[in-house]
TrEMBL record:
Any one cellular-component term (Gene Ontology): cytoplasm
SUPFAM superfamilies membership: Chelatase
InterPro entries from the UniProt entry: Ferrochelatase, Ferrochelatase_AS, Ferrochelatase_C, Ferrochelatase_N
Keywords, comma-separated and alphabetical: Cytoplasm, Heme biosynthesis, Iron, Lyase, Metal-binding, Porphyrin biosynthesis
GO biological process, alphabetically ordered: heme biosynthetic process
This protein's pathway: Porphyrin-containing compound metabolism; protoheme biosynthesis
Organism of derivation: Tumebacillus avium
Family to which the UniProt record says this protein belongs: Belongs to the ferrochelatase family.
Enzyme nomenclature, EC number: 4.99.1.9
Record function comment: Involved in coproporphyrin-dependent heme b biosynthesis. Catalyzes the insertion of ferrous iron into coproporphyrin III to form Fe-coproporphyrin III.
Swiss-Prot/TrEMBL catalytic activity: Fe-coproporphyrin III + 2 H(+) = coproporphyrin III + Fe(2+)
Gene3D superfamilies, alphabetized: 3.40.50.1400
Residues the entry annotates as binding Fe-coproporphyrin III: Y13, R30, R46, Y47, S54, Y125
Protein name: Coproporphyrin III ferrochelatase
Length: 311
């Protein structure tokens, strides 16, 4: 008897795979509006500063392979096939859903490589997948994992990485050092919409710090868009300045809203925030990204299996 085949639509943000793709990539993000020449040049310089290109595509591929392997280990009664669909780069979510239909996949669970739900993030991935499902005539239904921000193994994975970062802080400061949990900022209007995103970031931070017994923690925001409307704050650079004024000498930043090393982590924190901390004479330690760490992948796989049972 053949096993039931379950397709996993693993959705990610995507990143340019060459310098030539930077302009069309950001044009896609900006819904058809090309970046101005000075904006494009600044973007290229940011990529150059982290080594030329973001490692996101390679990490996303490794995460997909690890997730598929982990799912098949955890539940050998079914066969899991992970398909990657990108929001802003090839293969786009629509292309991936089309491939799943062509492969005859009828049972599908969708998951985004982001732990926290927002109408401006996860919901937009789901919308793209649903539009593609309608366009290509299948599968009949996709069961979505909408958030996994307090999944116990995800909390375990994050706690271990936060503890490793704390170990790099001088012993005399370790118990009192501030741990800042950051995520990509979104426009402030999500607050009026009752969006759960800020609350979920806080819930992750609380669960992690309760597990490791660290009381000095709070949330911050990073990588806000450059638009006229206000975005969620405080920005991590303002947090660093504020902590310096309070006499803090060391700070730990955990970019918990991101699950991979990429531009927003490697430039916004490892270069920009680190440079500010250095100028202020502060020690900044960034918590390592989970990338394709086995415990992290087990967390995502468990969330997928739980959704598969419900769906």
């Amino acid at each position: 008897m053949s096993k039931l085949v379950i397709g996993i639509l693993a959705m990610a943000y995507g990143t340019p795979s060459s310098v030539a793709e930077i302009e069309p990539y950001y044009t896609h993000i900006r819904r058809g509006r090309k970046p101005e020449p000075h904006q494009l040049q600044e973007l290229i310089e940011r990529y150059e500063a982290i080594g030329g290109l973001s490692p996101l595509n390679e990490i996303t591929a490794a995460q997909a392979q690890g997730l598929e392997r982990t799912l098949n280990e955890l539940n050998p009664d079914a066969e899991y096939r992970v398909y990657t669909g990108m929001k802003h780069a090839h293969p786009f979510i629509e292309e991936t859903v089309q491939k799943m239909v062509q492969d005859g996949i009828t049972e599908v669970v969708g998951v985004v490589w982001a732990p926290h739900y927002s109408t401006m993030s996860i919901a937009t991935y789901i919308k793209s997948a649903e539009e593609a499902r309608d366009k290509w005539g299948g599968p009949a239904q996709i069961a979505y994992v909408e958030s996994w921000h307090v999944q116990p193994l995800f909390i375990d994975s994050t706690a271990k990485r936060v503890e490793a970062a704390l170990a790099a802080i001088p012993a005399a400061e370790r118990a009192s050092v501030p741990v800042v949990f950051t995520a990509h900022s979104l426009p402030e209007r999500i607050l009026q919409m009752g969006d759960p995103y800020p609350r979920q970031i806080e819930e992750t931070g609380r669960a992690v710090t309760e597990q490791i017994g660290h009381s000095n923690w709070f949330t911050g925001w990073q990588s806000a868009g450059r638009t006229p409307e206000p975005w969620l704050g405080p920005d991590i650079l303002d947090v660093i300045r504020d902590q310096h004024e309070k006499g803090v000498r060391s700070i730990v930043i955990c970019p918990v809203g991101f699950v991979s090393d990429h531009l927003e982590v490697q430039y916004d924190i490892d270069i920009e925030a680190k440079q500010l901390a250095d100028e202020l004479g502060m020690k900044l330690v960034r918590v390592a990204s989970p990338n394709d760490e086995p415990l992290f992948l087990r967390a995502v796989a468990t969330a997928v299996l739980e959704q598969a049972k419900k769906g």
